[in-house]
Structures are given as structure tokens and as C-alpha cells.
Amino acid sequence: MNFSSARQYFEQQIQQPDEHIDLAKAALYIAQEEYPNIDPEEYLNAFDTMAVELEERLPSQRYPLRVIQSINQYLYDDLGFAGNQKDYYDPRNSFLNNVIDRRLGIPITLALVYMEVSRRIDFPTVGVGMPGHFLIRPDIPDTEIFIDAFNFGEVMFPQDCQERLNQVYQQPVPLQPEFLATVSKKQFLARILANLKYIYLNQQELEKALAAVERILLLFPGAALELRDRGLLCYELRLFAQAANDLETYLIKAPQAEDAVTIRQILSLLKRMS
């Protein structure tokens, strides 16, 4: 598998209606750009095996909290999954193959493991994009139970979410209803890619950061800030024609942006160079 075919498979997967996107497959295609030799089917089969093993441990009466307790026991006690507290910004935490192999991840990738296993035992869960800390919740109407996959499947209620939010931002932050809203599958994948983008920017791995931005734009083609960032990365990588195109489009979409003056200066420079 080469780079371009992994990207093509990712694009094919996300072109479906959101409810038909296979999150695990799409996440594995993200990983396949970094690890061309992995076999996504092998990892999907691993989820199937986990679900079969977990099924044997489930209580006869499947009340949500008892099912969660069984999932937690299996994933965290038996299999040893854990949040990578020591090296949170290791890019491997964002690649699903590594998370399964190493049993280490960040909130969103551990949430994905949890969601894939729970779906297979007919206990579907959905992603909740709380700022600064990704959660999941059982896909049951009017349920106000949340699960923190990063912290060993801790069960949380809205008040706990408020406390976690204050903890993340180290100051009181009012809990808005949208903070606990369900994310779409495309939003879920974009958040994984955004994590990779910022890690690679910090590491000055600009080509890898660009690859993350390109895939975010496959998910959300009109995202102005991503167009700007692709333009700036292309400028740094001396891909000047693409840079000029993206930065011009950004200014059309956001003419009053705070950085508009800076972007116009870069565009003037690009015109003088062409």
C-alpha cells in the first residue's frame, strides 16, 4: 500500500453519508499513510475478537451501568488499555493501529476503541466533543451518562463534566449545552487529524502537517482556517502556486480576518516571486 492509495481509500470512505462512514476503517486509512504496510482488516478483526471475548463477560441483565462496568473491566483490567499520560503528544497515540498494539492512546483514540467494541456487543456509543477532552456516551435517548475512555472508562454526569472542563482550562468555564453535543463521524475524524496537525507543526514536520490538513479539507472542503494553514504550509514548503491559490481563497472567505494584513503581505511577496 502506498501513500496515495491510503488517501484514496480514506476519501472513498468519507464520501459516504455520515451515518455510513466506518470510523475504524477511516482511522486506519489515516494510519496507513504513516504505516503503509499495515493491514486494516487485521485490526478490524481484533475488534471482532475483543467483542467475542467481552460478550462472555457481560451480565445477564444488561443495564447500562453494568455493561459499562464489564467493558471497563475487560478493556482496562484484562487488556491493559490506558491513557498515555507520560507522552501525550506522541503521534503514535493518534494512530489506531498503534493504540491497539501498544494499548496506549489519547482520549479520542481510546474513545474509538471503546466505541468499536461496544458497537459490536449491541451497546452503541457516540462521541462527545467536549472542549479539551473527548468523551463518549451510550447512544440511548435522554441519557446523561458520559464515559471518559482516557481515564479507565470513568462514568461521569454533567456536574463531573463541568469539573473536568475547569480542570482542563485551569479556571471556571461555564458548561454550555453544545459542549456535550454528539459529534458527527466527519467531525470525529477531523479532530484526530487536527491533533496530528498540531503535533507535527510543533515538531516542524511540515510535510506531515500538510498531509493532515489536506485530509481535514477532504472532510470539510470549505474550512477557511484549514485553507489558510494549507496555504501557509505550502508557502513554507515552496509550493508557491498552491500557496497563492489557498491564501487568496482564504481572504475571499474571511476578508475581515485578524491576520488578513499578514496574509496579503505574503500574497504580495508571492506575486513578486512569480
Summarize the structure.
With 274 residues, this protein is mostly helical. The chain is built from 12 helices and 6 strands. The chain has helices spanning 3-14, 23-34, 40-55, 64-78, 96-102, 107-120, 158-169, 185-202, 206-219, 224-236, 240-253, 260-273, and strands at residues 82-83, 104-105, 125-128, 135-138, 146-148, 154-156.
Oligomeric nature of the chains: single chain
Q: End-to-end distance, in Å? A: 37 Å
CATH fold descriptor of the largest domain: C8orf32 fold
Question: Number of helical runs?
Answer: 12
Strand content: 5-15%
SSE order? HHHHEHEHEEEEHHHHHH
Family: Belongs to the UPF0162 family.
Organism: Brasilonema sennae CENA114
Domain Protein SirB1 N-terminal: 42-193
Protein name: Protein SirB1 N-terminal domain-containing protein
Describe the protein:
By secondary structure, this protein is mainly alpha-helical. The protein has two domains: 178 residues, C8orf32 fold, CATH 3.10.620; 53 residues, no CATH class. It has twelve helices and six strands. A two-stranded parallel ribbon has the order 1-2. Strand 1, helix 5 and strand 2 form a beta-alpha-beta unit. Helix 2 packs across helix 3, helix 3 crosses helix 6 and helix 11 packs antiparallel against helix 12. The longest helix is centred in the last third of the chain and has 18 residues. The chain is globular and about 70 Å long.
